[in-house]
Amino acid sequence: MSRTLYRNARFFTAEGQAPADAVVVEGDVFVFVGAESDAPSADEAVDLGGRAVLPGFTDAHTHLLMMGDALGQVGLTDAGSLEEIQARLRAARSSASGALRGRGWLFDAVPGGAPTAAMIDAAVADIPVYLDANDYHSCWLNTAALAELGITRDTPDPIGGRIQRDADGEPTGMLYETAAQQFAWAHHDAMTTDAQRDAGVDRVVAAYLASGVTGAVDMAFDDLGLAALGRAARRGALPLRVAAHWFVANTGDDEQNLAQVAQAAEHAAAETAGVQVIGIKLVLDGTIDACTAAMGAPYADGSNADPIWPAERLFPVVAAADAAGLQIALHAIGDGASTLALDAIEHAIAVNGDLPRRHRIEHLEYAAPGTAERMARLGVTASMQPVHADPAIFANWAAQLGDERADRGFAWPEYEDAGALLAFSTDAPTAPHEALANMYVASTRASALDPSVPAVHPQYALPLERAIVHATKDAAASIGEGDRRGSIAVGRLADFAVLDADPFTEGPESLLSARVVRTVIGGRTVYEI
Q1: What is the number of alpha carbons within 13 Å of residue 23 lying toward its C-beta?
Q2: Comparing C-alpha atoms, which of 431, 421, 460, 420 is closest to residue 443?
Q3: Are residues 173 and 103 in the same domain?
Q4: Does one domain contain both 76 and 51?
């Protein structure tokens, strides 16, 4: 088996030691990390030109097929007004066939934060238009899309969702939470061909490799994702290391809910090309921006939201998944939801006893004091997304809370201090997928979307070294892979990214312009410029 020496670089190992200047890779693992003068003989040498090298990033919470779709849709995140949104839709209309899809719009870009079908109709009325919000927890439709879906004043709200209606009971064009999933997304899935999904997977792979991402954890996996990634693996187009959590929806019926857990367990036990199902994903609440996250106290407007999974439906599912050895990932953005999530995990522990487990709570945008300590005691991972704290999209988030709770948003150091495992990710496509931009927000609390926006809560910024560890070593550890990959160390899988700038010497600001010039997975260069 041949050996390759990578030399003349600054290798950040994520192991808490001084950087190395050389590594040797044999097969797919590191067999040497240290000073070049001590390196064993190798068959080939690669000079990296003095560049910085990081362990490969693992995006520990992402949505691969959704991201593939998003990369081919009208981008609206940086559209700061209704007029700009409408202008982009008009410009995209000429190339749209069947329906026009966009993604990433922000509530504070819309007058009063209240989107309506008429606002889209003013730009595009002749074909259906579907616009996913930045958080992907609501979908904004025009009149033609409402008609295509058959949504009328008589259409009932699904469990955990809402069709927004006006004073006369007519649909306004907004679908929240499970209403977006069961109407807009289900229709999109039915209308998308395998060839289109395959093209989306190719876009995701290319985007991630160019960002230095070597592994991903899909957090809403289903049969369509399983088939698409399987096809990609069989045609040799999936170099990423992919794990997945099977999505389990609250049907309102315990038997049907538990059947979904059993299905996930079957997939976890199976040998599947390209991806390993490792657990289940439950969405307990919505988002703060849309006032659909379950909070311990009301929002500024006096409203609140019930959890999508009430305790009587949630506890049996969590206990069954725990007993089956599945990792449980619980989406909980509000403190009401994160408290419920921990209650369910504690119940599972009481029912099932002493088992190996490493469950997770996703997002934790606002959590009650003491949550981090409780998670540490229970061995629960805090899975968080720095890019969700970008100051350019923070104002609406803070306004919905309207009180001192906004001062404790995205409090990553609390989890470090408590001793909980903290794993960073992007939740793409709800936020940009680029790993370096994610690290910029994590280490500065400043905006990667609009650098002119001042930092918010800089006291929660983390040293760059620790931020990168959370996105590499700890992200791999969050799915039980920390002893195999995520750091540059002897015996670890040789996954790494080479940058054209050194953020440790040039400062975090360099992350906004830095490029990944080489990505290596298992000792094989899979991307290079």
Answers
A1: 33
A2: 460
A3: yes
A4: no
From first CA to last CA, the distance across the chain in angstroms is 27
> Among all chains, which residue has been given the structure tokens 């070593």?
473
Look up residue 403 and give its two tokens: 């009180």
Q: Which of 144, 172, 189 is the last residue of a domain?
A: 189
* pLDDT band at residue 303 under the 50/70/90 scheme: very high
- State if pTM tops 0.85: yes
| Same domain flag for 48 and 107 | no
Q: What share of the chain is helix, strand, coil (3-state, %, to 5)?
A: 40, 25, 40
Q: pLDDT per residue over 285-298, tens digit each?
A: 999 999 999 999 99
Report the alpha-carbon distance of residue 172 to residue 165 in Å, rounded. Answer: 5
32 vs 339: CA distance, rounded Å: 45
Give me the torsion for CA of 429, 485, 502, 17, rounded to 10°.
Answer: 140
| DSSP state for residue 366 in the 8-state scheme | S
Are 134 and 393 in contact by the 8 Å Cβ rule? The answer is yes
Q: Which helix (H) or strand (E) holds 84?
A: helix 82-93
Angle (CA) 201 203 206, round 5°: 110
Q: Are strands 327-332 and 44-55 parallel, antiparallel or unpaired?
A: unpaired
Q: Looking at the domain assignment, is residue 97 inside a domain?
A: yes
Q: Can you give the residue range of the structural domain that contains 34?
A: 1-56+486-529
Please say whether the beta carbons of 102 and 75 come within 8 A.
Answer: yes
On whether the CB atoms of residues 109 and 81 are closer than 8 A, the answer is yes
Q: Domain containing 35 — which CATH number?
A: 2.30.40.10
- Statement to judge: residues 116 and 10 lie in one domain: no
Residue 116 has pLDDT above 90, yes or no: yes
Distance CA 29, CA 185 (A): 41
Task: List the structure tokens of 32.
Answer: 């040497």
Alpha-helix residue ranges (DSSP H) falling in 330-463: 335-352, 371-378, 394-401, 412-418, 435-444
C-alpha 483/C-alpha 492 separation (Å) is 7
Q: Radius of gyration over alpha carbons of the chain, in Å?
A: 23
Please tell me what DSSP assigns to residue 111: G
- What does the alpha-carbon distance between residue 129 and residue 165 come to, in Å, rounded to a whole number? 18
Mean of pLDDT values over 387-407: 97
Give the mean pLDDT of 214-222.
Answer: 97
Give residue-wise pLDDT tens across range 249-273: 999 999 999 999 999 999 999 988 8
pLDDT band at 385 (very low <50, low <70, confident <90, very high): very high
Total domains in the fold of the chain:
2
Same domain, 99 and 143: yes
